[in-house]
Write a structure and sequence with these properties.
alpha/beta, Rossmann fold, N-terminal domain of TfIIb, 2 domains, 6 helices, globular
Length: 252
């Protein structure tokens, strides 16, 4: 069973993220680099959208975009529980348009790596540009920058528990085709839900986009300014490649 079909378990698996601090950081980037006031926010490949939910609690209008109806349904339920309203859009992140443009957009956890081909990547950039007001920021988290690092390939595991539900997650990256820059990413979740055991697994073929390739493609499209690579937990610029990173673009 695919991991993405079970939003509650997915949310528990990544509950180690400090959502409030992360949204504080988004607001710091907006204050330093946005050329427009931000009222409307777009979360691309949103999943459970904890960060978007927090931003809406702080007074922003929120739009969550995902192609999974299960995730969008879960997002709506959680938003209602919190007393807020979030617009949802079911669409592929490589081809979409919002009826009303956003002022700030973000995509987290290297979800941009799921796009695959260069044609689809360029279509994604067009889609974001067409849905973002001039002067607004596009924040991209945790691209695979440190491709030459010793820990790039292999696997990592962690365990999170909440309300009697225990989720042990294993994530691995393998090289499929170096010439085509193709990778295989596998995520497995072993779940103990009040004594009921389930195993979820999903394998995705993704494409590595090298840092300067990314910058060149963005600049060739001409829709965004590339503002730089930043640390994942601050507005400081990166001194060297790191898997914990933020790429920041601004709509022309």
């Amino acid at each position: 069973m695919p991991v993405y079909d079970k939003p509650r378990y997915y949310e528990i698996a990544f509950s180690f993220v400090d959502i409030e601090n992360q949204v504080d950081l988004f607001q710091a980037f907006i204050e330093e680099h946005s050329k427009r006031a931000v009222k409307r926010v777009l979360d691309i490949g949103c999943g459970p959208a904890q960060q978007l939910r927090e931003m809406v609690k702080r007074g922003y209008e929120g739009v969550g975009l995902d192609r999974s109806p299960e995730m969008l349904g879960y997002l709506t339920e959680r938003a209602e529980e919190s007393g807020v309203t979030i617009e949802t859009v079911q669409a592929d992140m490589t081809r979409f348009r919002l009826d009303e443009k956003a002022d700030f957009a973000f995509i987290l956890m290297d979800t941009i790596g799921l796009i695959g081909s260069l044609d689809k990547f360029l279509s994604h950039i067009d889609s974001v540009a067409g849905s973002l007001n001039s002067g607004g920021l596009y924040l991209i988290e945790n691209m695979k920058l440190n491709w030459a690092g010793d820990e790039f390939f292999g696997s990592q595991s962690w365990t999170m528990e909440e309300d009697g539900v225990r989720v042990e997650t294993t994530y691995s990256v393998e090289l499929v085709d170096a010439l085509a820059q193709m990778l295989r990413e596998t995520m497995t979740m072993e779940i103990d839900d009040q004594g009921e055991h389930t195993v979820l697994e999903e394998t995705m073929e993704t494409r590595m986009i090298f840092p300067q390739e990314f910058v060149t493609l963005v600049e060739l499209k001409g829709e965004f300014e590339f503002l730089g690579w930043f640390e994942r937990s601050s507005t400081r610029r990166l001194d060297e490649a790191s898997q914990d990173n933020i790429a920041l673009l601004r709509r022309r």
